[in-house]
Specification:
Largest sheet: none
Shape: rod-shaped
Strand content: under 5%
Radius of gyration: 29 Å
Order of helices and strands: HHHH
Helix content: over 70%
Number of strands: 0
Structural class: mainly alpha
Length: 131
């Protein structure tokens, strides 16, 4: 009986050692997988830029439509471009990337809105006909 108990202890110790070894390999594989860090660190600059671009484009497009109707292409909102943080949230990523995207989007949106107003097309009445 004493031999079988000692054998049981040895088998239990060996099993426990194997479980610990296998789980440490699993943890090591997770640490090597940097997709999580790339998404929230490296790619967050791209995401912040994209959010900024979309926000800036919307603001610039509205301003461009207004200035196109008034035939004043040089009246860009300098405050919007200097601040460039309209609609920014910290979860979007680094603020500097957002601001660069906002400025890029605002300039493109302003040109698109201005040209749309000059051509008679307005995004709110996209029926396919020019006025």
């Amino acid at each position: 009986m004493r031999i079988s108990f000692a054998r049981w202890i040895a088998v239990a110790a060996l099993t426990l050692t194997a479980v610990i070894a296998i789980s440490s390999f699993a943890v090591a594989q997770y640490d090597d997988d940097d997709r999580y860090e790339r998404y929230y660190d490296g790619d967050s600059r791209q995401l912040a830029h994209q959010h900024g671009y979309q926000s800036g484009y919307r603001d610039g497009y509205r301003k461009g439509l207004h200035e196109g109707r008034e035939n004043d292409p040089g009246d860009i909102d300098i405050n919007a471009l200097q601040n460039a943080t309209h609609r920014y949230e910290s979860w979007m990523g680094p603020m500097q990337a957002f601001r660069k995207g906002y400025r890029d989007g605002y300039r493109h949106g302003f040109r698109s809105g201005y040209n749309a107003a000059k051509s008679g097309w307005d995004y709110r009445s996209d029926d396919g006909y020019r006025r």
